[in-house]
Amino acid sequence: MRRALSHLPAPHGQVPVVDTITLAHDERRLRRKLLTGAKGTEIMVDFPTTTTLDHGDALLLEGGGAVEIAAASELLYEIRAQDGGHLLRLAWHIGNRHTPAQLEPDRILIRRDHVLKTMLEGLGATVANVSEPFFAEHGAYHAHSHGDGGHALLNRN
């Protein structure tokens, strides 16, 4: 088993890639975990803090080489609106429910949830089943205090 002690954001061209690990959205946020690559490479991720990995990032391996991260396809809803203003209102309702969402100029992607689907259709949205990688927006704040009672902007490392 090889240890991954840090990660390299994409693009990371200087380090040879020895394997690839495909992870869903929630699985790409980790601190300490045993992973297995597509070629069977076992990797123990051992970061000092919880880290969010993106598609194309790499885990830097102890002893050399890297394992590239790929985003897995997930079962999602594709939400489309009548116009830009309508899409903004739908995004507000999704955010009001603290639902992870991938925001794009002409659509929103969320994980499948029949209750949200019914609500969104009731608000006039077109909701379709899709299967594709999910890149939800990262939260703006940490979940812990920094001593002054305020929030700090999210650190992706």
UniProtKB/TrEMBL annotation:
<dbReference type="GO" id="GO:0005737">
    <property type="term" value="C:cytoplasm"/>
</dbReference>
<dbReference type="GO" id="GO:0006457">
    <property type="term" value="P:protein folding"/>
</dbReference>
<dbReference type="Pfam" id="PF02814">
    <property type="entry name" value="UreE_N"/>
</dbReference>
<dbReference type="GO" id="GO:0019627">
    <property type="term" value="P:urea metabolic process"/>
</dbReference>
<dbReference type="InterPro" id="IPR007864">
    <property type="entry name" value="UreE_C_dom"/>
</dbReference>
<feature type="domain" description="UreE urease accessory N-terminal">
    <location>
        <begin position="2"/>
        <end position="67"/>
    </location>
</feature>
<protein>
    <recommendedName>
        <fullName>Urease accessory protein UreE</fullName>
    </recommendedName>
</protein>
<dbReference type="InterPro" id="IPR036118">
    <property type="entry name" value="UreE_N_sf"/>
</dbReference>
<dbReference type="GO" id="GO:0051082">
    <property type="term" value="F:unfolded protein binding"/>
</dbReference>
<keyword id="KW-0963">Cytoplasm</keyword>
<dbReference type="Pfam" id="PF05194">
    <property type="entry name" value="UreE_C"/>
</dbReference>
<dbReference type="InterPro" id="IPR004029">
    <property type="entry name" value="UreE_N"/>
</dbReference>
<dbReference type="InterPro" id="IPR012406">
    <property type="entry name" value="UreE"/>
</dbReference>
<keyword id="KW-0533">Nickel</keyword>
<comment type="similarity">
    <text>Belongs to the UreE family.</text>
</comment>
<dbReference type="GO" id="GO:0016151">
    <property type="term" value="F:nickel cation binding"/>
</dbReference>
<comment type="function">
    <text>Involved in urease metallocenter assembly. Binds nickel. Probably functions as a nickel donor during metallocenter assembly.</text>
</comment>
<dbReference type="GO" id="GO:0065003">
    <property type="term" value="P:protein-containing complex assembly"/>
</dbReference>
<keyword id="KW-0143">Chaperone</keyword>
